[in-house]
């Protein structure tokens, strides 16, 4: 009986260690698309990787009044963009944000953003166990003419 109790205690300890480990989330290649005169919104892009499955549940920034997580995709011949409440981040698989897919919209900016500026972003994640954590990122504003920064999207013709 003592061996059984000892085995159960050891298994229980291993079980709790396995599930108490928090996801380690890393964000790389964060950048913000440059702006043209009169523009009041732009997109932020990056790559997110997590050691455990987690969800991106919020984004904030002091440079803007509204920050939204978005998905853009083609639906037949129509490009659609919609806000998302959250986004699943799989374990050990990079999740790329780009102009033609997932992105973060910075809406109603407090001032225009210039090339070379650093935009602070706070990304909030929720683990499968419900624990919240955040990652703070500084995303560099890139010029519109740089290859990684395509021309601004005209949101007037997209379905939100």
Could you characterize the architecture of this molecule?
The protein has 160 residues and is mostly beta strands. Helix content is 12%, strand content 49%. It has a single domain, classed as Immunoglobulin-like (Sandwich). Strands 1, 2, 3, 4, 5, 6, 7, 8, 9 and 10 form a ten-stranded mixed beta sheet that branches. A hairpin with a 4-residue loop joins strand 9 and strand 10. It is globular, with a radius of gyration of 20 Å.
What's the gist of this structure?
By secondary structure, the chain is mostly beta strands. 12% of the residues lie in helices and 49% in strands. Mean pLDDT is 83; it is low at 4-20 and 149-160.
Q: Tell me the structural class.
A: mainly beta
Please identify the top-level CATH class. Mainly Beta
Topology order in helix (H) and strand (E) letters: HEEEEEEEEEE
* Structural domain tally: 1
**CATH superfamily membership, which one?**
PCu(A)C copper chaperone
Query: β content, as a range?
Result: over 45%
Largest sheet descriptor: 10 strands, mixed
Mean pLDDT level = 83
List the helices and strands and how they pair.
Layout: H1 2-20, E1 25-33, E2 41-50, E3 54-60, E4 64-75, E5 78-84, E6 87-89, E7 95-96, E8 102-109, E9 118-127, E10 132-142
Parallel strand pairs: 1-10
Antiparallel strand pairs: 1-2, 2-7, 2-8, 3-6, 3-9, 4-5, 4-8, 9-10
Key terms for this structure?
160 residues; ten-stranded mixed beta sheet
